[in-house]
Fold this protein.
Amino acid sequence: MTQASSPQAPRRVALFPGSFDPFTIGHDSLVRRGLPMFDHIVIGVGLNESKRSLLPPAQRVQVIANLYADEPRVSVVGYDGLTVDFAHSIGARFILRGLRSVKDFEYERDIAAMNHHLGDIETILLFTEPQYAAISSSVVRELIAFGKDVSEFLPHK
Ligand code: ADP
C-alpha cells in the first residue's frame, strides 16, 4: 500500500513560563491538561525574577525536571530575558498559562496581548480546576515560613 505523501505537520510546542517558586499541584495540573493539546511542553523557569525566592532557580529546574522524568514530551529549562524571545528560541508558538481568578485574568490578558504584539505568540489559558483555585506559590511560601507542612500542595512522583 502506498502512503499518501503529506507535508509534515509542524510540531505544536508550548512554553509554560513562570517562577514556580515552588511548583505546585496547580502548576502540575496545567501541564497534564495541556499535554493532549501540544506535542511538547517546555516549562520555562524564569531566572531573572526579582521576587523573593524559596529555592534558587537552578534547583527549581532540577526538582521540576525530576517530576517529569518519565514524560518525554515535557522538558524544563531555566531562562532569562524576555519570554517571547525565549519562546522563539525553542520554536514555541504558544504560551500556556492558568487562570484562577479575575485578578489572574487582568494580569494574563495584558501579558498575552503584549506577547502577541511582540512575538506573534498565542496564549492558551486554562481555567484552574476548582480544587486548586486557592493554591499559589506565594501562599505555599508563607505557610513554609510559618513552619506548616505543605506537602499536600506539592506534586509527588
Ligand atoms: P508568575 O510568577 O509568572 O505568575 P507562577 O509560577 O506564579 O508564575 O504561575 C505560573 C502560571 O501558573 C500562571 O499563569 C498562574 O496563573 C498559573 N497558576 C499558578 N497556580 C495555579 C493554580 N493553582 N491553578 C491554575 N493555574 C495556576
